[in-house]
Fold:
Amino acid sequence: MFWRGQMRKGAIAILDALEPVVLAFAIFMMVYLFLFQPHKVDGNSMLPNLSNMEYILTDKITYQRRDPQRGDVVVFHAPPPYTTDFIKRIVGLPGETVMVAEGRVYIGGQKLPEYYLPDSYMTTEKSFLREGVPYRIPAGYYMVFGDNRGYSSDSREWGPIAKKAIVGRAAFRYWPVDKIGFISHQEYKFNP
Structure:
């Protein structure tokens, strides 16, 4: 009888100790599944704004309230044959006509101001988006380019991405410590 009582007290103590762990895990899973998800920047396609091996939090709720906008840095499921998530910037919206010419991006025939890029960065053609050939973006799709245009696999190579492929908006850089802060998104007053 004595041992039975001791075992019961021990079981209750173990359950009491596990309760905060289970609660913390449940909260973590809710945040991870519905609010924010960590991602690692893999490669230099977003230089100078994001660097290889930086860690970011992706906001998964903004696009439940509004559509993605030009200038947003987004995380999305990469098209085949890639198997990881990519991080790129939205340059073209559904229904717009996008073109690359003379090292620049044109939307609806107007040069896109890209204040987040150094003037020396040039946008060149790739296998999908050819120099001087306009492309109309289908409904529900977005053109996404890496900021480091010379070293980015992006919509110029494999076409637009579907809205449903977007995981969320890159929101906050938490590593390295000296670069902690919110990720800048270009807000446009540009209307092609």
In short: The chain is about 20% helix and 30% strand. The chain has a mean pLDDT of 88. The CA atoms of residues 65 and 74 lie 15 Å apart. The chain has one domain: 38-182.
